[in-house]
Amino acid sequence: MPDPTRRPTAGFGLFWLLCAILGLRLLSMAVLPMSDTTEPRYAETARLMAERGDWITPWFTPELPFWGKPPLAFWTQAASLKLFGVHDFAARLPSWLAMIGILWLTQKLARQQGNERLASWSGLVLASMALAFISAGAVLTDPFLALGTTLSLVSLALASRGRRVPWGWLFFAGLAIGLLAKGPLALVLVGLPVALWLPGDGRARHALRALPWRSGSLLVAALALPWYVAAELKTPGFLDYFLLGEHFRRFVDPGWAGDLYGNAHRETHGTIWLFLLWASFPWGIAGLALLVHRLCSRAGRATLRKALADDDVRLLLAAGFAPAVFFSFAGNILWTYLLPGLPFLAILITRGLLPLLDATPVRRTALALVLAVPLMLSVAGAHLALHPHKLKSAAPLIAALEALPGGSVERLYYLEDMPFSARYYSRDAARRIGRTELLAALAQAADGSPPLFIAVRRRDLDWLEQAAGTQLAVRYRGAQHILLQHNPPTPR
Asked: What are the residue boundaries of the ArnT-like N-terminal domain, all occurrences included (predicted)?
């Protein structure tokens, strides 16, 4: 006979295990420098926002507005930089807090669909998925989109159970968050699961009818539209590029220039499903194993048929797989696009796992899977933090420069190309320079003037040493660049 005191104690232990996972991420995001390209690119945009006090237009460079994303993520990151100072932890903290919100909503829905045990394990499964764990401590916009879409879909699910207040209003608040985090994509990632959920026992239709559509739509307009109008007035052309270019022309016009701020990520159509296994690792593979296990027995197939008739399961399926379905025929994709579906996949996988957890071997295996990604990535992060020269980041190079006598980022030049991390860690003081301009600067350096510092790729080192002679000294070797110091001759 099961011990009635075991599960509350186990639930308490699961709570502290979740806290440990979140604590590991909090620690790693404080000690690991940002690597190119995404994190320092967004962090520099947030830094410029905080420095300029311009809360309307995010800026890609001091001269170029960033029309690629709405400002919600940059608002939170810039506010954190203003509050805590310009360093990696402050820039990453808002994503960690957004993931806390997503975890709370996930557990709230799981608790309503099942019990406290389902809620605790669903939180653990989500927190230990590869993409969720990484996103919780990275400077990205995706956690804020996922927060908005999760809030909307969880609110709709709770409203369908008769809990209209405050969840009916929070459905629209989630849409506003999504519109300010990523734009109209939020409407698609909420609307598609709802459309797939509608053919059921009527709960979805009842919930939709119960929502405060008129006042809720006014709430969305009041929260989101003012920024869109202000952004267009401040930098005309934004709406055409963001709404029409990013969301329409890039798909129908082969000659459209595409993303003006980064590189296209061309993948074969359908690759998003492989990304889903990567994003949900190790739980996506575990979920497939559970599915195969059920299909291999008559009782298991009967259980699956019963589950598919359950309106709660149908919502989880629709919400969990909607991002992968939507991006199946897109080539320009990233694995982070799948984050909005992971909360619902976590509950779905946990529902299949829960009946097996009373067996000690299964429970130990599940706990091992919970620890797999957090421990592996934390160990890898600790190794890179102790050996920063292995990172594709300007952080260790700039730290080595500032430790040198006379080392100053104002006198640092990157030959030919400068990574985003160099802009961020130098506070936009480092400069890009071409070959001709660099040789002229070296030749014109006044006798006895402060040294110049040049960051070069390995492929350019031989050329520069031959062109500049013996006046260059290697001061640092990193994964991307080598730091050279040029000392003008001392006057006699």
From this structure: 36-242
Cβ atoms < 10 Å from Cβ of 221: 13
Whether residue 76 contacts residue 91, with contact meaning beta carbons closer than 8 Å, is answered with: no
Rounded to a whole number of angstroms, the distance between the first and last alpha carbons of the chain is: 94
> Cβ–Cβ contacts within 10 Å for residue 424, how many?
31
In this structure, are strands 482-486 and 452-456 parallel, antiparallel, or unpaired? antiparallel
Work out the angle at residue 106's Cα, subtended by the Cα atoms of residues 4 and 120, and round it to the nearest 5 degrees: 25
- Burial grade of 479 (CB within 10 A; 0-12, 13-18, 19 or more): middle
Domain boundaries, the chain: 6-386, 395-486
Structure confidence by residue, pLDDT tens digits, 242-286 = 888 777 666 555 445 556 665 556 778 889 999 999 999 999 999
Whose tokens are 């309503």? That residue is 112
Distance of alpha carbon 1 from alpha carbon 456, whole angstroms? 70
Q: Kindly give, in sequence order, each residue whose CB lies less than 8 Å from that of residue 174, ignoring residues fewer than 6 positions away.
A: 147, 148, 149, 150, 151, 152, 153, 155, 190
| Closest to 232 in 3D by CA, of 223, 243, 221 | 243
Q: Could you read off the pLDDT of 194-248 as tens digits, one per residue?
A: 998 888 767 788 888 889 999 999 999 999 999 999 999 999 999 988 888 777 6
Helix (H, G, I), strand (E, B) or coil at 253: coil
Whole-number Å distance between alpha carbons of 475 and 276: 43
Quick one: which of 407, 411, 346 has its CA closest to 132? 346
Distance CA 489, CA 82 (A): 42
- The stretches of 237-341 forming alpha helices (DSSP H) are 238-239, 250-252, 271-279, 283-295, 298-308, 311-326
* 272, amino acid identity: I
Q: How many CB atoms neighbour CB 387 within 10 A?
A: 11
From 199, 176, 409, select the one nearest 318 (Cα to Cα). Answer: 199
Contact 41, 392 (CB under 8 A): no
Sheet strand arrangement including 431-433: 431-433, 412-415, 452-456, 482-486, 472-477
Burial class (CB within 10 angstroms; exposed 0-12, middle 13-18, buried 19+) of 37: middle
The H or E element that residue 108 is part of is helix 88-113
Q: What is the CA radius of gyration of the chain?
A: 26
The 10 Å Cβ neighbour count of residue 234 is 12
What is the value of pTM for the model shown? Answer: 0.93
Residue with tokens 């400077």: 139
DSSP E strand stretches across 403-489: 412-415, 431-433, 452-456, 472-477, 482-486
Q: Distance between CA atoms of 463 and 460, rounded to whole angstroms?
A: 5
Nearest-10 Cα torsion for 81, 382, 265, 482: 90
